[in-house]
TrEMBL record:
A GO BP annotation: protein targeting to mitochondrion
Protein name, per record: Sperm-associated antigen 1
Region of interest: Disordered: 106-145, 339-391, 421-449
Record gene name: LOC119640838
Gene source species: Glossina fuscipes
Domain of life: Eukaryota
Assigned keywords, A-Z: Cytoplasm, Repeat, TPR repeat
Compartmental location: Cytoplasm
SUPFAM superfamilies found in the cross-reference section: TPR-like
Chief location: cytoplasm
Intervals holding TPR repeats: 218-251, 253-286
GO terms of molecular function: heat shock protein binding
Amino acid sequence: MEKKKSLLERYQIPISHLDFAYIKQCESGREMEKILLILQSGEEGFYPDLNKCAEEKLRQLKPNSRLFRVEEKLLGRDALSADELKPIYVWNQDIKNKDHKLQKLADENDSNDTKNLRLPPVRTSGKIQSSKVEKETKDPPTRIKSTDYSKWDKYDADEEVLRMELAEERIVEDVERKNRLNANKCKPPPTVSEIQKEFDSGKEKLTNLTDIEKVKFSEEYRLRGNEYFRAKEFDNALIEYTRSIQIYPEKATAAYNNRGLTYFKLKKFYESMKDSEACLALEPNNIKARIRLAEAHYAYGRKKESYNLYLKVLEVDDGNAIALKAIAELRQQYEDLPPPKATRLKIQDESSKAKSKPIEKTPETKVEKVEKKEEAKNIQEKKAPTKVDKAKPKKIKYDLADLIKPNRIVKNKLITAAEKLGKMHAPGDEKEKAKATNQEQSKKNPEFILPMNVKTDYKSKILIEEL
């Protein structure tokens, strides 16, 4: 008998590889799996530390290795949490409600409403008539033996042919009779082709169908539309999707979505936008409808509006690759578009706020009151008619020298010289009196009179030394 090969021989791994130094330097995940299997088998001995080192190295090289899989028992009902049990419970209740409605329909089918509902009877259990089957098996057809010449003399071939024809006719009549009986007992439910004809003729009343029937027929039309769409027969697909929506528009989310895609393929972007909006009205978080709405806006020429719609897609799915790629392309085309995670602030004018607020009256000061009175007087003077004088107004000459006060006064030397000349000539008393008055005035207001030979326009003007 051949000896059983060890794992070292089967995997062709030398025993020198079962070492800490080699395991730390190994870079092959497949070889590490084999080494770990050899260590776990215990054929070469039990080395817990080496085993642990090999597991850590394999976890680094190949974290999803099958050696890390652990067999566990199947989870029971008690192991599930309330959040995990809730969808199962809801689904169970939904199935029970549908069964209850179908049972009601079966009860109504037995009553007088069979014509309107046109449903077959519910299938019930029955018994197989085993006796008839046994009799048929016990009576096989008899054949004439080849050596029985007496029976062959009595055999009539024409008679046997007629008998076989009659048997065949009898079987056909039995089948037709059974078909007539079954047709009279119940009518089958309307098929998709029958409802299609009734749609075309306009005789179908959808009010006769229950919600379950509407869902069923609507789904059948939608699936037929999908088949046309895969065959790229978009016009026929549109017809089927439209009929699916007409049967049950309240739950036609998928039909609206598919018809919007069909319109997009036919380059009818406005109709595609309308169907996508209708789908979002029924299911606001439908990612396909949001992406299709943004794509339809972009193709229709509303590129900046499509940018906002792509941002809404990211609100539902942050890592959507289609939306992120479209946003990057739009930002390259339009540099003024904000980044995806930008926040907008509302800017309000203060002037608008000030207009809306009532003006508060502040207490007036005395200066403001005086200014207001002067403004009122000036307005009245402007409004009052002015009288035009015939005589021309006299021009007033202003002497700017009177407005200046010098730091020092220069004494007039001409006066003293004149006095000396007067003493020398000794004029009369009148001249002396005039000179005395001039001296008194000069002492009060000293003047500097220019000589007479100087030709200037400023005669008899007071001159002041420059400071």
